[in-house]
Amino acid sequence: MWSVCKKELRQFFSSLTGYIAIIVFLLVNGLVLFVFDDNIFDFGYATLDKFFQLAPWILLLLIPAITMRSFSEEFKTGTFEILQTRPLTRWQIITGKYMGSLIVVFIALLPTIVYIFSIQKLSAGEGIDTGATIGSYIGLFFLAAVFTAICICSSSFTNNAVVAFIAGLLGCALLYYGFSAVSKLPMLANGADYYTEMAGIDFHYRSISRGLIDSRDIVYFLSVIFLFLLITGRNLSKK
Predict the structure, then answer these.
(1) Residues 152 and 71 sit within 8 Å (Cβ to Cβ)
(2) Could you list the residue range(s) of the whole structural domain that residue 28 is in?
């Protein structure tokens, strides 16, 4: 498993594309939070709420870009057959690729911790709410983990990296905001709207971001990750 994971990391950082994707992610976050109109300094109090509202939408572009070549490139170049001859089970291959992609996402998120210290130093009052911020980072990590599983699954359906990117982007967007949008339909206003919204990723991400770690949210994220990795395994068994 770890050999596949290391292979994914080498593949991603072997070209400028990997570095550019991470740099663009950090640059967009920095500009929106500290430079553009309605930035953090306009709030009048120490908070990173804007970052945690913005980050999921940027991850919708970053994570498909990271994972789009995971399986599609293997199918296109014919190396998937070689990979299957190694003493690795199908689940070890899937887990290795998943962990490799997730580590890259974690590397992209890690420098954003600087925002916490920056806001804390610039604050004239009590400073940032540490508990809520830690909860938000935990929620963001689980969100990234779910997006990675969805995009890995999308990559297993095609040998075209661009198609894998678009499919991963659409899949993440639908599961993140689709249920929330559907719950606002008038026909669901009799109480079904709450349960419809609960089926979406956004509901559970916002729940954890409040600083309250609920086991139901954790179980939801882990279940969605397992489901998409299971679909990936079933799909690879047909190749």
Answers:
(1) yes
(2) 2-237
Mean pLDDT of 156-181: 89
What Cα–Cα distance (Å) separates residue 138 from each residue in 71, 131, 201, 207, 211? 28, 11, 14, 11, 9
d(CA 167, CA 164): 5
Say how many domains are in the chain: 1
Query: What single DSSP character describes residue 199?
Result: T
8 Cβ contact partners less than 8 Å away, ≥ 6 residues apart: 70, 96, 97, 99, 100, 101, 104
- Residue range 179-188: average pLDDT? 76
- pTM as predicted: 0.88
CB 28 within 8 A of CB 112: no
Query: How is residue 166 written in tokens?
Result: 């678009």
Query: Residue range 203-219: average pLDDT?
Result: 83
The first and second tokens of residue 208, run together, are 């954890």
Query: For the packed helices 215-237 and 90-109, what is the interaxial angle rounded to 10 degrees?
Result: 130
200, pLDDT greater than 70: yes
